[in-house]
């Protein structure tokens, strides 16, 4: 990653975060139906929340807000706090295992001391029961940002910074040694497993611009899938594996994915590579960072934003 660009990103993102956290933002939790091309509003608050997951039984969504996770019931639209124990500084990288029993979270915590080096503060991945409970640490190192469960529930995929480079890694859900899958200079982020467990989709700066890529689960056979004027992030494969939805910034953002930008949600058909623009709005960071498809594959959830002052 270009160090000057990386430092600029670090300087700019807190400004966006402050605006979002200061009560200046209206957040709208929405559902998009790909069969009817209709948008349905689930929840609106004059506050900042992010990153919906859709439960495997189809009954609720999970969002993060001010470091905590909440369940939004799709019958009543009521929002209730999920018990995440000591983990009260969760970010927007969280998601549900394929069997629906476990929740992975990324929580600001201390790393484990290694070779006598002092612990560091940063995002660390934990897992806990879907109904809530005490989180169990998975990644010893920070920062680590969760993005995908393997379909068999045995491994997690995530973005991590090690020695100044952000790359894609996987690790056993029980912890242990992590496997690095990308090595090209520049940011690699947003890894997510295909439903058959054979492919990982991710976004990468490997071509010099942020695009969607795919690779085998061992890191082999990397292939660029998008190549257009947009800055493309966070590919989420549909439950049938035939397409993926992703977010496109209308203007190139380099390695950054800020909030409050002009964006579109788009759908790529994996059989022929065709792309359909579904909807456009103000969003970006927090809109669709993590898996959010409904179990039937007809809908997905996302968050749009508006300034209110």
Automatic annotation (TrEMBL):
Residues 1-19 form the signal peptide. Keywords: Signal. InterPro entries: 6-blade_b-propeller_TolB-like, WD40. The keyword Signal applies. Gene3D superfamilies: TolB, C-terminal domain. Pfam families: PD40. Belongs to the TolB family. PANTHER family: PROTEIN TOLB (PTHR36842:SF1), PROTEIN TOLB HOMOLOG (PTHR36842). This is Transporter. It comes from Draconibacterium orientale. The lineage of its organism: Bacteria, Pseudomonadati, Bacteroidota, Bacteroidia, Marinilabiliales.
């Amino acid at each position: 990653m270009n160090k000057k660009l990386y430092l600029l990103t670090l300087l700019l993102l807190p400004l966006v975060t402050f605006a979002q956290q200061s009560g200046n933002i209206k957040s709208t939790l929405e559902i998009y139906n790909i069969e009817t091309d209709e948008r349905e509003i689930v929840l609106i608050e004059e506050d900042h929340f992010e990153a919906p997951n859709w439960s495997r039984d189809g009954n609720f969504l999970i969002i993060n807000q001010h470091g905590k996770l909440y369940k939004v019931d799709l019958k009543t639209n009521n929002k209730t706090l999920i018990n995440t124990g000591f983990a009260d500084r969760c970010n927007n990288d969280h998601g549900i295992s394929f069997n629906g029993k476990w929740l992975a979270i990324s929580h600001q915590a201390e790393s484990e001391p290694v070779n006598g080096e002092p612990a560091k503060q940063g995002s660390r991945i934990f897992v806990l029961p879907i109904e809530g409970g005490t989180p169990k640490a998975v990644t010893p190192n920070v920062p680590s940002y969760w993005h995908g469960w393997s379909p068999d529930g045995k491994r997690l995929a995530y973005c991590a910074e090690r020695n100044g480079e952000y790359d894609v890694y996987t690790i056993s859900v029980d912890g242990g040694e992590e496997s690095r899958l990308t090595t090209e200079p520049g940011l690699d982020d947003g890894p997510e497993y295909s439903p058959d467990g054979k492919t990982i989709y991710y976004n990468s700066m490997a071509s010099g611009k942020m695009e969607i890529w795919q690779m085998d689960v061992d890191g082999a056979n990397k292939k660029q899938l998008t190549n257009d004027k947009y800055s493309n992030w966070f590919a989420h494969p549909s439950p049938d594996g035939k397409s993926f939805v992703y977010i496109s910034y209308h203007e190139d953002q380099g390695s950054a994915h800020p909030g409050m930008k002009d964006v579109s949600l788009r759908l790529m058909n994996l059989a022929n590579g065709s792309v359909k623009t579904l909807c456009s709005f103000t969003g970006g960071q927090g809109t669709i960072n993590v898996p959010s498809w409904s179990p039937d594959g007809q809908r997905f959830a996302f968050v749009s934003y508006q300034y209110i002052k």
